[in-house]
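Pasting two entries for a bug report.
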Amino acid sequence: MKIRESLRKPLWAALVFALCAVWLLSGILGGDDDDGQASVASRAEAQDDIVVRVRTSRASEQSRTLTLRGRTRTRHAVTVRAETSGRVDDRPIDIGARVSAGDVLCQVEVNDRALRVREAGDAVELATLEYEGMKTLRERGLQQEIAVARAKAQLSSARRQFLASELALKNTAVVAPFAGFVEETHAEVGDYLQMGSPCATVLDLDPIYVEAAVTEQQYPQLDLGAEVEITMATGGTARGSLTFIGKQSADESRTYPIEVTVPNPDFSISSGLSAEVEVSLHAQPAHKVGMSYVVLDANGEMGVRAVDDDQRVLFYPIDVVREDPDGLWVSGLPAEVTLITVGQEFVSPGQRVRVQRDTAT
């Protein structure tokens, strides 16, 4: 009996201890559930408490540009040749000279060519008198028709000789066919020129042309007459217009040739220079955004974040229309949009935020 009583006390103690443990554990677990719900609620409140700065942006029509690599060239580069034989009496131009159309490049000796012109002129005058006399006699019935025809043929021959002698005299002056720049001389005073011998090479540098090529994707975006900015390898710049778009692509590269016409009245742009060509494309609505506005979404797509009327975050993919020193012109946005300017890195689409107007942008 005493043994049973001695065992009963430890059993009761163990039972009480077990009940206390269960009570304590149930309190802890219950407390964790409440704390978890409170934590979720506090995180949600914290998200709603995120403050971002925003500004309203309105789209405006902006021109897109396409940057290409090209090369300047002259369309006319002519080696002017002698059209008659003779010794060079004078060469009034030198390398680097600017010439106008008709300026003398090489003067071939005249010799008796001027006398031949006068002689041919006299022959024309004589043939004319004979022909007129024959016609008068025929009208009186004193001359046959064949004699009149012969006199007319002689007059035509005299006139041909006169024109040929005039042309031979004129051709002693080898002249520039157009205004341009003397790139090279081929004859010196005292040289004997045969018909076809070179005198000088003249370049037509006004206007200058810039050749480039576009891909199949870029081709439909071009318009004849579009404005073009040219930056030469020398650092010089110029403006021109797109005057030619090829209709046949190159077999190897599948690119289409284009040509830009650039005024060059002072011949400051040389032929053969490498050039960067910026062609204006179709205008389209675009927004001006700062570089810091641009973020990447989970898929790595470039875009900007904005907020709607309920102050929920939106993500808009963008395409860059043009880059300026102080920002980007981008498309892909509504005509009017509230852009996040500060805090866009810490929010995600669908999240509700509090907004402050950004007065600094």
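Entry 2 (this is the one that rendered wrong in the viewer):
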Amino acid sequence: MIGRDPSIAGGRPGAGKGRRAAALAGAALLGAAALLTGCQGGLPIFSRVKEVEGYPLNQAMIVAATERNCYQEAYTDQLWDAVLDEEGTTAETFLLRQVEVFLKELKLVSQMAEEQGIGLDGEEQALVAQLAEEYYSGLTEGDLAYLGVTQEDVEILYGDYALADKAVTELTGGADLEVSDSEAKVIGLQQIEVWDEATAERVWALAQEEGANFVSIAREYSVNPEIQRKLARGEGGQALEEAAFALAEGEVSGVIQSGQVYYIVKCVDDYDEEATRERKGELELLKKEQAFQEIYGEYESGHTVVFGENFWDGMDFDGGADCTTTNFFELYREYFPG
């Protein structure tokens, strides 16, 4: 969905580490746009599929080149010939497919917004224009020669992005997106993980001794070197979660069997406020995405975006060595933090 940029990592366009992750979070518009729910009255049922004209190649290349360059920064250009599956799909082919999916969703969501009477107000349009000017003015000669875009091209793409983003917010306004603190609660643990019950019982006894240093015991016996961890609901096995969330700060659990693994955990923070707040935001976003699926899925089933046969043949993926732009999504989120 929109809100997701075309990244290979995670099945959508974008590189997955550090600044890349932030950039793609921006592109998470469709993920965000996956948020078009709560639409009053719903959408009409279509008896036939309507064709929608996609973006021209130079506008599409803004996204494709951004993603390509971000990946190359992280992994070098040797990445693109890597074969990802038994069908022989290369990383280059996969990335371009993901970019195309992103652009199709962006086009459909922005069009659906217009049909629902949602538009950018004067202030938002001014922001889009200012954003496009800043991005365009930051392009190098090498960027411009490779992309072949004008400032108007950039403004069109940013305008659709902002419109889809706004539609997500407005059309989900009536949906129940509330997440309780209990549902989102995250706790901090120290853990010891072993593979047999006898060892687990012996380690547990050591942890009960007066003055026992739980971390030192974990370093000696745990098969998992990650001793410190945060745990949220739904992220661990049922037995582990039930035992861990029942602990008060400073308490040590009994032996917990979860599948083939045995745990002993110590609660070091029975309410991690910052992590809980972040988790709450993630769960609310997930609810928005799930709510949007019904509306967007119905709309998508009646429309197809047409880019033309062999659309990407017009992009020399291995060329444009002087094109280094990477901040298209990052810059958007500076203007529309959402």
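Dev reply: Rendering is fixed now. As a check, the viewer should reflect this: The CA atoms of residues 19 and 225 lie 27 Å apart.
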